[in-house]
Write the structure tokens for this entry.
Amino acid sequence: MVLALAATARLPAGDDITYELPKLVTYSTQVANQTPVATFAMPVSGLRFEPRVDVQARNLAEGQADIAIRGGVFENTGFKLGAAALYDPQTGHYFAEIPVAPAMLLSPQVLTGADNAASGFNAGVGAVAYGWRPIAPRGEAAVAFGNYATNRQSLYQGLVLPGARGGPTLAADFELSRSESDGSVPFGDHDFRRASGRLQLQGAQSQTDFFAGVQQKFFGWPNLYTPFGFNETEDLRTILYAFNHRAWTSPDSHWQLGAYYRRNDDDYEFNRAVPGASNPFVHATHVRALALDGHQGFGDYAVTYGFQAMRDSLQSTALTSGRFRTRDYYKATLVPEREFVTTAGRVRLRAGATYDDTNREAAALSPLAEVRLTRPNGRRLYAQYSEATQVATYTALNSNAAAGLFRGNPNLGRATSRNLEAGFSFSPAGWAVEAAVFHRRDDELTDWTFTRGVTARTANPVDIATLGVEVVATRRTPRYDLVLGYTMLDKDADYGAATIDASFYTLNFARHRLTAAVTARLGRGFEVRVDNEFRLQEANFLRVVGGDKAVLTSLGIYYLPPGVRSLEFSALVENLWDDDFQEVPAVPAAGRQIAFGAAYRW
């Protein structure tokens, strides 16, 4: 990591010409490398080194990755697209299956604490929220080739048509992407394809988006989900149709209405050499949702509000042992707030509640409250308390409790997360620093555990207390951008009477995690981008290779030929040090991968 950081520090003399590469979009402001090495960019790509998000990948992050926030698990992190929260009722492993080109999305917001409680959906700890990007008349064609027979191609085009005077402007964009590779380990191949398109009406104070997209993914990996030495595969097909209308009268007052239909088809093979072995795992989920949210200001008063209704259904050859295969969900949010000025600074108070209900479980009313002080010098301090609830997915509820590779529990109830935290932000000497300390109590959280001598993983409820510290420091100059992150976590888990030898998720966390994202503009058309992560992981006996420490680096070197600013060449390396740390216990790490690419933008 030190070598990679040092490579970005050699800046040119002051008379060199420096400029930032004219990137089509920025997928995440906290991450240096916006483009993955082995495949085309997906929404999850911009989260790989995000300081507040822990992406635990199998194969490549764009293949299958569990997204955890603040020491949570993959199923209590949600995703939001416009007004509506996206969801896969079968398993949280598929929450990030979003067939939308990142070029169509704004940079993600990571919602935690009271913000997640108010705006998240069926997500106990955090949510990643995306907005729809306004379409501009621009395009990009990109190709790349790398080791392990890796190759990828993508095409994006945005169009804006002249509108009638005083009326809305009609715009459209579309993208086509594909990639394939033999993979950095035997039987780690992949073949991905995506097609997506959008129509957009742009008004003076509104934006309406109509979207359709489909994504097909086949990939293999040894020990993909089980620790028994088999070469497993996933074959996924995700379809999404979405609508979102957003309107605003001021930065403080806005509302949006959204709806979507999502279908996810999954054919999982435990042993690719013998398809259908150990009970075929073929599933299809359907989700329909309607959502409304907004924030309305009234001088010193304001109110945040929201509502979402969702219906799902499951078709499955394996998840047949539970009590139901359809479910309706409802969530309502109402949070009034007030601001006033004191001698100490400007104070904002907000307090409200959310109401969660389904037709299968009991409802829950969850309070939240926050006090925030903004000092005259711009420093902000806050303290808050919030609660959030969620219900289990069908893989946990409907898997056979007594046999098979995945053993469920039809009696899993609603999990409750209670979060108490305090934090501050300030800007010393050109830096922007945000810090928080939190204590969270998760009751009846669903975890997947392993017991010696049992050839399966089992869904078990756990009560767990998490103490955490989170710091993000950012500095941006004409020559370089630097984003530093640090997270410390400590957990105390109680599984009751269950016999537990290892946890795949709840106890798979970094006690200490440091991230460093560096973008250095070297002049003469060169730019270097480096993402670094150092982590000291909680011990887990299933992690048999790589130990409990990791140093992970993604390096990108970019060049724009002088005078041809539309053309870009790149050399990218993922896992620069070839670290064999297992992000998910028993799942082999991906090796070092290299790609050389070219992009043309207009």
Q: What stands out?
A: Residues 1-22 have pLDDT under 50 and may be disordered. Residues 113-119 form the longest helix (7 residues).
